[in-house]
Write a structure and sequence with these properties.
The protein has 496 residues and is mainly beta. 3% of the residues lie in helices and 36% in strands. The chain contains two helices and 31 strands. The strands form seven sheets. Strands 1-23-22-21-20 form a five-stranded mixed β-sheet, with no helix packed on it. The longest helix is centred in the middle third of the chain and has 9 residues, at 227-235. The two termini are 39 Å apart. The relative contact order is 0.15.
């Protein structure tokens, strides 16, 4: 197996799979606690969950990130124009306290009276955290959110106590923002722009701030003039997240699914390739490379979303779903070339919406939604098909790629799962993605995910709009957190 990996890591994969497996090198599966998070309002900022009767919310499609000291920040969407919910955990994910809404026009307070409900953003949320402390000793937290006309970035310098709100983008027709941060005050966003009079091709723009999100003067297009970049801008693409390299922060990465330019005339062609855009100069210039090219034009990798993470050794990981299984590939040379695809999800059960957390060199957590006992199109899954959150962990992801597997929680949804974004015609209760990060101080993971099941216990309070008959409908949609209680982590535990 090692000889095979040596052979394929020097060239871009053309579709050969290496099977990931459980084995002696895999960690023992951990256990998790999971609970619902509080909405602000109606609950006041600072509501701690679990532990309060106000621990319910109506948000979905959450994101998560973590500071070097182990403080987690999470956010979730209430929908365009309805603002964003946010939470923070100071005890390694065992409890999350609600913060004021990051995009409240009253700048960090809960709107009431005439201001109530006046919140921009609320769509396509993402979260980033600084890697160095600010002047008052905290790590800045950032929340990006989409409005109909702009991307907003909210900054908290006091662990979520207050937020400042800044419109960030100046280019028209933007969509699906992602955000990443490094140092004490550098933060960047990426987003797609659609073709128009001023923009003849699709652009993947990366815009950076060096003043903690107050201004974003640096703008670049991550699609270059290489065959990969031209294919993505002219043939069609769907972008994934944005990350900095923790080992060499001048390096940045963002990923995308794309189709070839010549596919345009073929109605049966989908986004059957995976690419990566790499910047070695902090986002000023970008170069595009293929991660996976598949000659089968009916293959489809834009299944919400291609995902990238970088470990402390500088190894780059890219995960994606083909609407059947979840796979990843890795690079040891800053994204220039990648290993063959390695299938992670087990058996024939359908697995979608992968998200990666990378820790020490070679160590990753990979989460996804998995359908129990169902192999087929997720959109047409029968009403009794159960979906659960699964975490696969590898402590040797660039070598033997063995995994341990944990079913994180009870069922989060039954039936079809639509992944077509705003164009979905089926059930979209799980929306488009969810997230995982691991605490650098303990190595243990915290996951935020969407759930549409009626639950009523000490850890899950039902929303007043959700009744037992509302399970598997949008009336019960909410965001939960699941945190790892024990087992092996992906960071070495730091001695105090």
């Amino acid at each position: 197996m090692n000889k095979l990996l040596i052979a394929v890591v020097s060239a871009v994969s053309l579709g050969v799979f290496v099977q990931g497996s459980a084995g002696a090198d895999a960690a023992s599966p951990p256990s998790f606690t999971d609970f619902s998070l509080a909405s602000t309002p109606p609950s006041p900022a600072g509501t701690v969950c679990p532990g309060s009767a106000l621990c319910y919310n109506g948000a979905a499609e959450p994101a998560i990130n973590v500071a070097p000291d182990g403080r987690f920040f999470a956010a979730s969407e209430k929908g365009l124009g309805n603002g964003t919910l946010a939470w923070t955990s100071a005890d390694n994910g065992m409890h999350y306290a609600s913060t004021p809404s990051p995009n409240d026009l009253s700048t960090g307070s809960d709107s009431t009276g005439a201001e109530a409900g006046v919140e921009p953003g609320g769509g396509d949320t993402d979260v980033a955290v600084a890697t160095a402390r600010n002047a008052v000793g905290n790590y800045n937290a950032y929340v990006a959110s989409l409005t109909l006309a702009n991307v907003d970035v909210s900054t908290s310098k006091d662990n979520g106590g207050t937020w400042s709100l800044n419109p960030a983008t100046g280019l028209p027709i933007d969509d699906r923002p992602w955000i990443a941060a490094t140092g004490a005050a550098k933060v960047c966003i990426s987003y797609l722009t659609a073709p128009g009079i001023l923009l003849p091709n699709v652009g993947l723009h990366v815009q950076c701030s060096n003043d903690a999100g107050a201004t974003f003067p640096q703008v670049a297009d991550a699609y270059d003039t290489s065959p990969v970049g031209l294919a993505a801008s002219q043939g069609g693409s769907r972008t994934g997240n944005l990350v900095f390299d923790p080992k060499t922060p001048s390096y940045m990465y963002t990923v995308f699914a794309y189709e070839n330019v010549e596919d345009a005339a073929n109605p049966n062609a989908f986004l059957h390739n995976v690419g990566i855009a790499v910047s070695g100069d902090g986002g000023l210039t970008w170069h595009d490379h293929a991660v996976r090219t598949n000659p089968d034009v009916t293959a489809k990798y834009d299944n919400q979303f291609v995902n990238v993470a970088v470990d402390n050794g500088g190894n780059v990981y890219v995960a994606y779903s083909d609407n059947s299984s979840v796979s990843y590939q890795f690079s040891t040379n800053h994204g220039q070339t990648f290993s063959a695809p390695i299938k992670v999800s087990q058996g024939t059960d359908t697995a979608v919406m992968p998200w990666l957390a990378a820790g020490d060199s070679g160590k990753i957590d990979l989460v996804y939604y998995q359908a129990g006992g169902y192999a087929g199109n997720p959109e047409t899954a029968g009403g009794t098909v159960p979906w659960r959150v699964v975490m696969a962990q590898s402590l040797n992801a660039t070598a033997h790629h063995t995994f341990s597997y944990s079913t994180v929680n009870p069922v989060v949804h039954h039936g079809g799962v639509c992944e077509g974004g705003a164009l979905c015609t089926g059930n979209r209760d799980l929306f488009d993605d969810f997230g995982v990060k691991a605490s650098p101080t303990t190595g243990l993971a915290s996951i935020v995910y969407s759930d549409d099941q009626y639950q009523s216990d000490a850890e899950h309070q039902p929303d007043p709009n959700c009744t037992a008959s509302g399970s598997d409908t949008s009336s019960c949609d909410h965001t939960n957190a699941a945190s790892q209680l024990n087992g092996t982590g992906i960071y070495a535990v730091k001695k105090k």
